[in-house]
User: What shape does this take?
Amino acid sequence: MSTEQTSTSTSTPASGFSYTLTRTLEAPAARVWQAWTTPDQYAQWAHAAPGSVEMDVRPGGAWKSTMLTPDGGEFPLTGSYAEVVENRLLVTAMDVPGRPEPATMTMELTEQGPRNTLIVLRQTCDTAQERDMAEQGSTMLLDALTAFLDGSGH
Assistant: This one.
């Protein structure tokens, strides 16, 4: 079960369109990290096609997965890791077709006692529509991660 979920969206043309999602998870940071960075665990909760997740979790390492949409479609994703601090920080770059620079998402983990971890997801996008779609996708990821860690997911 999660607590203290917050969401903040901002629009400042100089810095782009960004969002921040914050949630407290009932799991130690190492467990959250493992769920997010281990291909077989990630595939179980992140709506990925079986066998499609590959992760080389190190700065400059590549990742890929094929996400399954609710209507049965497949959406291949690729990217790399910009920063990796085990159990604390993961900066993921995602390749976006037609965009010269990858989209970057930051995940920060902060332990709050032995059984709770504060997770913060941040992303800055080029447009409000892109931000809204990314924020919706990240909220779905956090919901699925929460269910997985609680044992009520997949």
